[in-house]
């Protein structure tokens, strides 16, 4: 039997790695990859809690549905933004997209 | 150590190692391919959680759609795979610290919680759960409203994605 | 699974494979493409014949059809089964589909000018314009090969796959899949020459119009599934208790029973697919596609599919029928079918385009079948479906051959203003194109129901006899008049095209087409004559003894026991009527159009006066739909949604918010900022402090999103820290 803690630790590590990717990578698409990792960590958590705490209730899975939906929407819009930015500014590096700089 | 624990450890190692590869590879295509590996590992974890439906969805939606979409986008913006360019920005160390801190704080704050090392109760899984999920998603007593909101969100994202990615002549003139 | 059942499963596969192989591998080579395409059609044809012969040899095929099914979709407490089935009806339909499809494939090789040189300035998406070749220092213009030759064979391969799937399906869902594949293919093929704006419009029109019907059909399927829990033909149609329940259950829609509502919804699908009034508008425009496509859509596949579906679902339509008392779906079919038969025939009278005449005649003949089914003449409808497929495929391919011959003339004179499809530019082609003429004549006579010899006579006669015998006199009258008009315009077409003297130089230089095109015509003309003989009524004087009405006994048994009806008693009245209208129409058509020199002097124009213009413009249906649906929704979008909703209401609200805020800002400035802040703090200090803060804080605003994120994370960790250690 696997204790709940294993899943939670795995999810926390995955979240940390994803967060690192989001904060440190230059490329916008790489940032999106990091976000995907973080969302997956969330999903592991949700499903683990569902399985260990309320297996007779579907609420945990409903939240997973929502996370999937948000992930799909986020990738679609995010990549569209990347392509649009690429077309106009010929760059995909987050630190070059600083029109809002003081 | 039980066999199932070994399976978990293999899956978890796959997830963590390939996730680290995702955030460190210079070549974005490689990073995206490692992402697919990570997602597979997560699917394995889902199977261990007896969330079979979600394992399938993970493969179909994440690997089948999202990962492929990402690879497409990488190809469209091709010369940014940038193997020669430094992949990290100036915040490398700060970001690494924050990542470690996030994981550490999460684990540490949860470790006090009494249910931390609970074992799974026996539960019905499989088809009945999926059926229940479907009923709950689409019944008014269940979660019909969030479902509809989610679908509206998807539609909006779809339209927005098309609109944003569409080349617009009038704007190019400006 | 038994080997023979496996063969049935495999029948649709070769054309599908051909589609993929041509599309993915062979699209560079025209030779490989047509060989793969025709080879696949031939394989399916051979397999179909084997299955057909086996079906003939099976005792009680109606009760125990061939075929098998598999578990497909796991559902709550069971599986949705999917399978193939060959009962008498599908065996016969399979027979004509396999033959016509193969003939159309072979014909296409010639039609797209296989073996001719590449065109001088042909472009993809436009019909070939011809190529110049030098023979003995002499320049000639000859037809050039279709620029998208390979693609055509890929598309019709997919089309054939859809049709085979539909015919062999043993449940409504699989049938619907085949149905939709054909919808897609008709879209692709009608717009095959996508460089022509008219073809683009026609493809969209065809797709959108049939879509209207398909949505209703899908609703009907869903209704059937929710009430019965199955879509299998055997389970619904052959179980009398299910049908009784369906017929007595109230659907809560307009007082229909569930069977009635489902029947009507399915029938609307047929109205779209088989181009019945009021969704007939797409079919004439579908003539924009290459001629083999027209034959495919109008004879072998699409429109036949619509009629096939309602014939297949007939027990459902008839569920709850008392003796002679028609159910509501049947009433709808009888009314719409009879009306369409007459209505389309009148339009066909005034058309000058050789293919358009045939298009309207198709609509009219389909109306025949629908009306026949509406009055319960199940076998007659199926019979006419088969014979019509043969002679209409023949006529379409023949007209394509004529057009090809005319294009030859056009290339010769290089006068490109001459429309090679206008019948008034033809005339006297009989001697120029003898093979085309004789086969076209056979097809035309079959269409008009030339007595005793042609297949069209026997099937039409059976419909009329059924209508008469069961006392549906209005339907009988409509169909009889339509038959007269059919004979008349068919003879008009033959006379204008083939008889008399050439009206233009192009017609003088018309040329017989290659054997690729004429050989299929000859094969089809054999069936256009011979197939009628399998359905001669038993009591028919003299001839009846030869065939024993084999067709009726064979097809009739694909109905459940309680619906099976013997062939109507022989009566002289419908026979006399059908003799008179066929011969009268043909004779009159010849007499009137013997010597008509040009379209302006069309005798009908004088005879009908302004009505002729109405007919020529198809009763202004396109204009009416344009006004009703297109303009009105555009008006709604422009005038109502844009001007009122968007500009006035939504923008108005926003402007209101802006004004209110502006006004609030003004008050704030006048009554607080100027008198209070400026007075008490003063300009110097009041400016310097915010400026200093601004200078220090602006460094945070790097414009890089990740910096903001790190800041946010730090704040979050700080908050967590406070929460965990200080407030605890």
How does this model look, in words?
The complex is a heterotrimer of chains A (102), B (174) and C (728). Chain A is built from three helices and no strands. By secondary structure, chain A is mostly helical. Chain A has helices at residues 4-24, 28-53, 59-89. Chain A is elongated, with a radius of gyration of 17 Å. Chain B is mostly helical. Chain B is built from seven helices and no strands. Chain B is globular and about 55 Å long. The mean pLDDT of chain B is 84. Chain C has 31 helices and four strands. The mean pLDDT of chain C is 84. Chains in contact: A-B, A-C, B-C. Chains A and B meet through α1, α2 and α3 of A and α1, α2, α3, α4 and α5 of B.
Keyphrases for this structure?
heterotrimer, A: 102 residues, mainly alpha, Helix Hairpins, 3 helices, elongated, B: 174 residues, Four Helix Bundle (Hemerythrin (Met), subunit A), 2 domains, 7 helices, globular
How do the helices and strands line up, and which of them pair or pack?
The complex is a heterotrimer of chains A (102), B (174) and C (728).
Chain A: H1 4-24, H2 28-53, H3 59-89
Helix pairs in contact in A: 1-2, 2-3
Chain B: H1 3-24, H2 28-48, H3 52-76, H4 92-111, H5 127-138, H6 144-165, H7 169-173
Chain C: H1 3-10, H2 13-26, H3 30-56, E1 66-75, E2 78-86, H4 88-111, E3 131-135, E4 138-142, H5 149-168, H6 172-190, H7 197-228, H8 233-237, H9 240-248, H10 258-273, H11 282-285, H12 291-300, H13 302-312, H14 314-317, H15 328-349, H16 354-374, H17 378-413, H18 429-432, H19 434-448, H20 455-469, H21 473-498, H22 505-508, H23 515-530, H24 544-547, H25 550-556, H26 572-593, H27 603-608, H28 610-616, H29 621-680, H30 683-697, H31 705-726
Antiparallel strand pairs in C: 1-2, 3-4
């Amino acid at each position: 039997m696997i204790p709940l803690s294993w899943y939670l630790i795995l999810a926390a590590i995955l979240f940390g790695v994803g967060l690192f990717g989001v904060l440190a990578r230059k490329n916008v698409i790489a940032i999106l990859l990091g976000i995907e990792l973080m969302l997956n960590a969330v999903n592991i958590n949700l499903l683990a809690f569902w399985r260990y705490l309320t297996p007779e209730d579907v609420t945990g899975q409903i939240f997973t549905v929502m996370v999937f939906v948000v992930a799909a929407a986020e990738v679609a819009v995010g990549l569209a933004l990347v392509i649009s930015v690429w077309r106009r500014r010929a760059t995909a590096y987050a630190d070059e997209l600083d029109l809002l700089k003081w | 150590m039980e066999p199932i624990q070994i399976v978990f450890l293999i899956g978890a190692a796959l997830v963590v190692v390939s996730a680290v590869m995702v955030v460190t590879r210079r070549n974005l295509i490689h990073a995206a391919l490692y992402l697919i590996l990570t997602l597979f590992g997560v699917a394995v974890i889902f199977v261990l959680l007896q969330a079979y439906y979600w394992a399938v969805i993970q493969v179909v939606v994440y690997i089948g759609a999202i990962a492929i979409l990402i690879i497409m986008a990488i190809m469209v913006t091709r010369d940014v795979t940038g193997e020669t360019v430094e992949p990290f920005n100036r915040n490398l160390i700060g970001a690494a610290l924050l990542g470690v801190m996030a994981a550490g704080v999460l684990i540490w704050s949860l470790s006090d919680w009494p249910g931390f090392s609970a074992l799974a109760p026996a539960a019905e899984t499989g088809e009945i759960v999926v059926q229940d999920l479907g009923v709950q998603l689409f019944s008014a007593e269940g979660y019909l409203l969030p479902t509809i909101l989610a679908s509206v969100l998807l539609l909006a994202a779809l339209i927005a994605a098309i609109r944003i990615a569409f080349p617009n002549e009038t704007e190019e003139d400006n | 699974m038994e080997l023979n059942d496996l063969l049935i499963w495999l029948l649709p596969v070769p054309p599908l494979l051909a589609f993929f192989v041509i599309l993915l591998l062979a699209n560079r080579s025209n030779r490989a493409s047509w060989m793969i395409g025709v080879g696949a059609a031939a394989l399916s044809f051979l397999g179909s014949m084997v299955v057909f012969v086996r079906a003939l040899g099976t005792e009680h095929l109606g009760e125990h059809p061939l075929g098998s099914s598999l578990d497909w979709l796991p559902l709550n407490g069971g599986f949705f089964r999917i399978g193939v089935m060959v009962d008498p009806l599908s065996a016969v339909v399979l027979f004509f589909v396999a033959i016509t499809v193969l003939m159309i494939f072979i014909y296409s090789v010639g039609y797209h000018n296989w073996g001719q040189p590449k065109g001088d300035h042909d472009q993809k998406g436009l019909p070939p314009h011809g190529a110049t070749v030098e023979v003995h220092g002499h320049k000639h213009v000859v037809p050039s090969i279709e620029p998208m030759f390979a693609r055509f064979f890929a598309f019709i391969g997919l089309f054939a796959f859809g049709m085979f799937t539909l015919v062999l399906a043993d449940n409504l869902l699989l049938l619907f899949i085949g149905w939709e594949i054909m919808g897609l293919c008709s879209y692709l093929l009608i717009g095959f020459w996508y460089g022509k704006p008219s073809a683009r419009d026609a493809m969209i029109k065809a797709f959108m119009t049939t879509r209207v019907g398909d949505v209703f059909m899908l609703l009907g399927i869903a209704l059937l599934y929710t009430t019965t829990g199955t879509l299998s033909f055997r389970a619904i149609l052959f179980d009398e208790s299910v049908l009784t329940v369906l017929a007595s259950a109230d659907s809560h829609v307009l007082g229909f029973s569930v069977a009635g509502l489902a029947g009507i919804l399915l029938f609307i699908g047929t109205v779209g697919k088989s181009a019945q009034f009021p969704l007939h508008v797409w079919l004439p425009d579908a003539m924009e596609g290459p001629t083999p496509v027209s034959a495919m859509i109008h004879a072998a596949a699409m429109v036949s599919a619509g009629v096939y579906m309602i014939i297949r679902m007939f027990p459902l339509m008839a569920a709850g029928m008392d003796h002679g008392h028609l159910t509501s779906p049947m009433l709808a079919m009888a009314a719409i079918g009879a009306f369409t038969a007459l209505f389309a025939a009148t339009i066909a009278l005034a058309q000058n385009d050789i293919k358009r005449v045939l298009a309207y005649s198709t609509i009219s003949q389909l109306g025949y079948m629908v009306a026949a089914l509406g009055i319960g003449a199940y076998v007659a409808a199926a019979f006419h479906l088969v014979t019509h497929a043969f002679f209409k495929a023949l006529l379409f391919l023949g007209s394509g051959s004529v057009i090809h011959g005319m294009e030859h003339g056009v290339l010769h004179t290089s006068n490109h203003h001459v429309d090679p499809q206008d019948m008034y530019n033809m005339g006297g082609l009989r001697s120029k194109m003898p093979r085309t003429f004789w086969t076209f004549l056979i097809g035309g006579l079959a269409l008009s129901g030339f007595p005793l010899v042609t297949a069209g006579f026997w099937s039409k006669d059976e419909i009329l006899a059924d209508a008469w015998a069961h006392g549906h006199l209005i339907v009988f009258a409509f169909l009889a008049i339509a038959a007269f008009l059919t004979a008349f315009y068919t003879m008009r077409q033959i006379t204008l095209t083939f008889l008399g003297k050439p009206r233009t130089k192009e017609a003088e230089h018309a040329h017989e087409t290659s054997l690729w095109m004429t050989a299929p015509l000859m094969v089809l003309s054999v069936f256009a004559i011979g197939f009628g003989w399998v359905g001669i009524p038993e009591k028919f004087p003299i001839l009846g003894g030869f065939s024993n009405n084999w067709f009726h006994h064979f097809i009739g048994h694909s109905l459940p026991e309680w619906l099976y009806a013997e062939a109507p008693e022989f009566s002289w009245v419908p026979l006399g009527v059908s003799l008179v209208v066929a011969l009268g129409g043909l004779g009159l058509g010849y007499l009137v159009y013997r010597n008509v020199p040009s379209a302006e002097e069309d005798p009908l124009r004088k005879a009908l006066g302004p009505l002729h213009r109405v007919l020529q413009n198809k009763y202004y249906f396109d204009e009416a739909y344009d006004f009703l649906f297109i303009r009105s929704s555009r008006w709604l979008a422009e005038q109502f949604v844009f001007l009122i909703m968007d500009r006035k209401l939504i923008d108005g609200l926003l402007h209101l918010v802006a004004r209110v805020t502006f006004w609030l800002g003004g008050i704030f400035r006048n009554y607080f900022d100027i008198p209070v802040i400026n007075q008490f703090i003063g300009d110097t200090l009041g400016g310097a402090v915010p400026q200093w803060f601004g200078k220090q804080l602006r460094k945070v605003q790097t414009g890089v999103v990740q910096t903001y994120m790190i800041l946010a994370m730090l704040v979050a960790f700080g908050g967590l820290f406070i929460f965990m250690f200080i407030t605890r």
